[in-house]
Predict the structure.
Amino acid sequence: MTDTSAYRVLARKYRPETFADLVGQDAMVRTLKNAFAADRIAQAFVMTGIRGTGKTTTARIIAKGMNCIGPDGNGGPTTDPCGVCEHCTAIMEGRHVDVMEMDAASNTGVANIREIIDSVHYRAASARYKVYIIDEVHMLSTGAFNALLKTLEEPPEHVKFIFATTEIRKVPVTVLSRCQRFDLRRIEPEVMIALLRKIATAEGAEITDDALALITRAAEGSARDATSLLDQAISHGAGETGAEQVRAMLGLADRGRVLDLFDMVLRGDAGAALTELSAQYADGADPMAVLRDLAEITHWVSVVKITPDAAEDPTIAPEERARGQQMAETLPMRVLTRLWQMLLKALDEVAAAPNAMMAAEMAVIRLTHVADLPSPEELVRKLQNSSPPPAPAGGGGGGNGAAQGSTGAQAVHHAQQRMASNPGPQGQTTALAQDLDAALARFPTFEHVIELIRVNRDVKLLVEVETCVQLAAYQPGRIEFVPTDDAPRDLAQRLGQKLQLWTGNRWAVSLVNEGGAETIAQIRDARELALKKQAE
């Protein structure tokens, strides 16, 4: 006779049924056990954490523990539900009339909460407590939260609320203050590997430790993700699963080869790096995954450089661990931080590019060419220790035409004079300062600035300067003035920008509160008035 029983995925088949089965949540389990033992069960709980850490599972275990009556039917609330009484079996199968689960993502409104509020006044039909489990509670609307507040603060003795959420910050503080909060942690790698090995043994599957480490790293602390990936890996490997099958399944690159690529990038060997990237791509690695692995290695090596104990990661093979420690000892932190920033930018570019492989290749080329750039400290040291470059022999190669030759000879002669009088970086700085002073010397007085504005035919600026600027101090390249009451607010900024545009040098134009003379327009009007009086 054919077996028609449906296959259960490993994530459901090995779902914890008691607190003893929960892994990686010791603090929460200890708190709940003590609360049950002392008969101090809160009226509301909120479970928060990333996906797959056991929030809804914990809620169901709490509901079973509250309503378990034991195999003999005389038991009380316990943290070790029997799993065989009518309440335990009904809750496990999701058909208990007094334990109601609601998905807040699809029941967000006040009307949905009003149904709960109306039903809490009635006692449980058969169980000890009515338990309301609301998953993804942060999806409730503001009105729904407000409608629930009073009932949540003073519920009937026979009612318990258990909330689960991945976004605890979106839950109002007024709701959180009425609940006991438990933060479910990511599962530690050692604990996760042990859990996966236990499940694989129970399933009779052969899977290597390296493959389990890859699955653990990909799961990022989520037990559900890890068991789902294990289920897929067992099917992919047909009973015997190794690291290569898991890499192919996840589209990952060999971590050892990623370390090789990392080393090529740091050596600045663009050709070898592109060849290795193409080989990994041909073997099925996703370009985005390769760059993400490079960023992960950069972060890991940086952390190991600061905290050597971080190298003891069970998800990393011993030989890879040794290579990472060696890199941490030799690579300066400035190189690692620069590489990290460039990889973050490269990941964004690959995600937005029409061809991910092309974008990844361009990113690798950029990384290899930046790898051998000197640091700012080295650059300053080289400049300080460098001697002036020798004067070129002849008038320059390849020039054709008398004008070009004459210009080149003049430039060489000028450069030789400059280098002879100003050797080294300090001399170059002095020469620049002298050039700046010479350029600004063309404007010894403020009247020369007015004439410059007039020559450039900026009538608006000319009128504003003549009527709104009460000059307080002037020297070539620097102007201080007191603005009149009707002066435009951006007059100083625009005047500085225009002078820089016309002279090629930066001008410091600033406002002061006192010490300003009369405006040019006032001086001109006073002079005209005096001339009229003399004429009379």
